[in-house]
Every structure is written in structure tokens, then in C-alpha cells.
Amino acid sequence: MALSADDLDPAIWNDDAARDYRRGVAWMYEPEVLDPAVDALATLAGDGPALEFAIGTGRVGLALQQRGVEVHGIEFSQPMVDELRRQPDGDRIPVVVGDMASATTTARAPGGFALVYLVFNTISNLLTQEQQVACFRNAAAHLAPGGAFAIETFVPELRRLGVGERFLAFDVSDEHLGFDEYDTVSQLLVSHHVDVRPGHEGVFRSPHRYAWPSELDLMAQLAGLTSESRWADWTGAEFTAESASHVSVWRKPA
Predict the structure, then answer these.
(1) The Methyltransferase domain covers which part of the protein (predicted)?
(2) pLDDT digits (tens, 9 = 90+) for 128-155
(3) Where are the domains of the chain?
(4) How many whole angstroms separate alpha carbon 35 and alpha carbon 129?
(5) DSSP 110
(6) Backbone dihedral region of 236: left (phi > 0), alpha (psi from -120 to 50 degrees) or beta?
(7) CA 95 from chain center: how many Å?
(8) Hey, which CATH number is domain 5-157+211-251, 3.40.50.1370, 3.90.226.10, 3.40.50.150, 3.50.50.60?
(9) How far is CA 68 from the centre of its chain?
(10) Which residues fall within 8 angstroms of residue 150, CB to CB, at 6 or more apart?
């Protein structure tokens, strides 16, 4: 059966997910992972303020704030915001609870940010092309002239899919089993996470709409943004045909 956006409930970031989020992605807090992202974002923000779409529990936003950048956030999940508030200095980041495709910050007027950014595949949490285009337009509306919009996301691994296959494993360990279920007709996938630790057994599923870098470039063009750079990761490594992810930056005309 084909997947559809109507069948995939995005309201998965509940109290349990928020509470366990840091443990589930502990590797993303490691300095070798987090520091290059914060370095790059701080450079893009310069002396101006930054707005993180889907700020979550503040993994990147709090670290960026510690670099002296004024950080604001938009977040769909109230439980994730509650968890952010429990973190040291989490109450210093103004956050609007709402959809990143349409919500407007209230602590700062739209059109006043030097940087808007999304990290770790978050653009794919919007499950239709229309929503993703709206997200680009919302980012552009919040940017000051000359401001940057940065996205970190994965490159669909469709080359690994055999004819008639739907599932690709992305993690197999003693603690976790991870499989992506692709529907190439609807351009949707579901990431299945199976916790196999004794006493912690459980399943978590997250829906995504994948998009190629070229499709994201077109979305940026529709929002009035111009392409500036694309890297394989936050270190600035060259993006190639073999890259599994990309960091892309678009700029609002000055």
C-alpha cells in the first residue's frame, strides 16, 4: 500500500519522545559532530540574530547562544519546548510554538534575522511539497536583506533500493535497529527505530518527505533566495555524487 501524508501523523514529538530525545541522539552532542555545525552557523550569523526552525530541545540553539549569537526558535511540539526550558539557559531563548511553515516570531519583527536554519533532516518533517515551499517562504520573510537560510538534510539513498524493494537498513547494533521504508511514488519514507536494549524495548516511527538538492534549490528560487554554497557536511567538505547528506545555504538579495 502506498504511503500518503494523511496517513503519517507528524505529532510524534510527545512527552516520551522529548524526554528520551537526548539519549536517542547522544552521538549528535559529541564535540566532533556539534562543534562544526555551531562554527558554521556562527559564521553565517555574524553579528546578527539567528532563528532556528524546529529548535526542539535546543541541541544546536543552546550551543550557538553560548557563542554569543542571539538565538530565537520556532517549534511545533510543546513537550520539546518544555524540555528545552529544563536545560541550562533554556529560558533565555524566545520560542514560538507553531508550524515552521507559517509561524511568525513575536520577540523580533519578521525580516530582522541574519540567519534562519534547520538541522538534521528537519525540512523532511514537512510531509508535502507545498508545506516545504511554504517553509522556504517563511524563512525568506524572516530574513534581513543579505541574510542566509541554511539547511542540513540527507540525500535519498534510492540507488541502494533494488527493484521492488522498500526497506533500507541505516543502523544495526546491539542496542538499536534502524530501517527506512521508502515509497517512491509519494516521495515519502518512514524511519523505523527499534530499541532492543533489555528493559527498554520499543518502537519509534518518524515520517519524512525526501527531496533532492535540486528540488530544494527550486524551492529557494520560488522564495526569492539565491544559492550560495553546498557542502557534504558542516566541516565544509566537498559535496559529491557519493555524499549521503548536504548542508545548503541560500541568500536573500541585499
Answers:
(1) 51-147
(2) 999 999 999 999 999 999 999 999 999 9
(3) 5-157+211-251
(4) 31
(5) T
(6) left
(7) 16
(8) 3.40.50.150
(9) 22
(10) 40, 41, 44, 115, 116, 117, 118, 247, 248, 249, 250
pLDDT digits (tens, 9 = 90+) for 187-209: 999 998 888 888 777 788 889 99
Residue type, 22: R
Look up residue 107 and give its three cell numbers: 520577540
pLDDT, mean over the chain: 90
In the predicted model, is pLDDT for residue 22 greater than 90? no
pTM to 2 decimal places: 0.91
CA proximity to 69, closest of 41, 100, 107, 97: 41
**Residue 60 · residue 38 · CB < 8 Å:** yes
The three cell numbers locating residue 162? 533494488
Stretch 153-178: mean pLDDT: 89
